[in-house]
Amino acid sequence: MPVITNIQDLKRIYERRVPRMFYDYAESGSWTEQTFRDNTGDYEKIRLRQKVAVDMSGRSTATQMIGRDVKMPVALAPVGMTGMQHADGEIKAAKAAEAFGVPFTLSTMSINSIEEVAAATTTPFWFQLYAMNDTDYTSRLIQRAKDAGCSALVITLDLQLLGQRHKDLKNGLSAPPKMTPKTIANLMTKWRWGLGMLGASRRDFGNIVGHVDGISDTSSLMSWTNEQFDLTLDWAKIEKLMEQWDGKVILKGIQEADDAKMAAKIGADAIIVSNHGGRQLDGALSSIRSLTPILDAVGDKLEVHIDGGIRSGQDVLKAVAMGAKGTYIGRSFIYGLGALGQAGVTKALELIHRELDLTMALCGENNLAALGRHNLLIPKGFEGDWQD
C-alpha cells in the first residue's frame, strides 16, 4: 500500500478499484463540466497569509454546525448510490463520521436505508430529502427519518429535474449495474469490489424498494425515480415540508442572494451554498465565488454552509475564513470509501483535519473563530464584476 498523504492519493486508488460506471458517476458534472472544474479551481486562486511569532499551542478546530458539536466544520454530504461505491457504503461512511466526530448526511437515493444506517450507528445523522410528486411517499419518508432519530432534514432545492451528465447516459448508469458486455468486461477487472458486493446487505435503493408500490425491478425503479422529482416545488411547498419535519432544517442548493433571503424568511436553520457539485446548471458560478454575496445578504439570520470543490483542509480553512460556518465533502470521502472502505473515509477525514489544523497554525490562529478574510489574499473581482 502506498503512503497516502492527500485526497488525490485516495482518488488514484479509488479509480483502480471501483467500476467505471460508479467512478464516472462521482467524478463528473453536467454538460461541459465547466462548473464542476471551477468548484475546485477557484479555491486555488485564493492565497493564504502567513503570520509568524505567535503562540501556536493549544489549537482547536472544534466548533458547532446548527448546534451540534463537531471536531471540525466538515460534514459528509449526501451522495446518491454511495453503497455502489463500496459494499454497505452508507453504513461504513456513517460509522467513520460518527467515530471521527463530524455529521453524516444520508441521501434519499442511498443504497442502505434510513433504518439500516440508524441500526449501525448511535449518533443521530442528518437526512437529505428530495421533493417528490408522490406526497404520500414523501410524508412517510419524513416520518421514517423522524423515527430513526435523524437530527436535521436537508432539503435539496436544485434538483427538480436532472442536469444531463453525459458519462452516466453513455455508461447506462443503474443500481445494481445492468450486465451489458461493456459492464461485464469492466467488472472483471474490479474483483475486490465484486467480492465485497457479494456480501453486501443491499444492492438497490433501500429508501424506495419495499416502500413504493409497483417497483419490481431496476427498470421500473429508475422510471419511477426519473418521473418523481417535483417540477412544481416552490417556497410554499418548502414551508410545508419544514412543517412536517418540525425540527432543524438545512436548505441545500442556494446560489443567489435573493434565494438565501427567502430561506431565512421561512425559518431555515442553515443553507448550503451549492451547485450540486457542478452536476446541475453547468455554467453557474463555483460555490466559493457565490459565498460572499450570500453572506452579505443574510448576515447572521441563519448559518451559511458550503459544498462543492473541497479537497483539502486548506479549502475548508478558506471557506471558513470567508465566513462559512460549515463545509461539506462529497467526492473527497467517496474517494476514500471506494479506495479502502470505512478506513478510507476515516483517512480522508484525518487528512483534511491535519491540513486544516496545520494551515490554521501557520496563518497565526489558534481557533476557527479567529479566522477571517484577514487571513486570505482574495483576487480583486473574485466574485465577478457582472452586468446587471
Summarize the structure.
This protein is α/β, with parallel strands linked by helices and 388 residues long. The protein has helices spanning 7-17, 20-26, 34-44, 82-85, 89-100, 114-120, 135-147, 166-171, 181-187, 191-198, 218-228, 235-245, 257-265, 287-298, 313-321, 331-340, 342-362; strands spanning 47-48, 63-65, 68-70, 74-76, 105-106, 126-130, 152-156, 249-254, 270-273, 303-307, 326-329, 376-377. The chain has one domain: Aldolase class I (TIM Barrel), CATH 3.20.20.70.
Topology overview:
Layout: H1 7-17, H2 20-26, H3 34-44, E1 47-48, E2 63-65, E3 68-70, E4 74-76, H4 82-85, H5 89-100, E5 105-106, H6 114-120, E6 126-130, H7 135-147, E7 152-156, H8 166-171, H9 181-187, H10 191-198, H11 218-228, H12 235-245, E8 249-254, H13 257-265, E9 270-273, H14 287-298, E10 303-307, H15 313-321, E11 326-329, H16 331-340, H17 342-362, E12 376-377
Parallel strand pairs: 4-11, 5-6, 6-7, 7-8, 8-9, 9-10, 10-11
Antiparallel strand pairs: 1-12, 2-3
Helix pairs in contact: 1-16, 5-17, 13-14, 15-17, 16-17
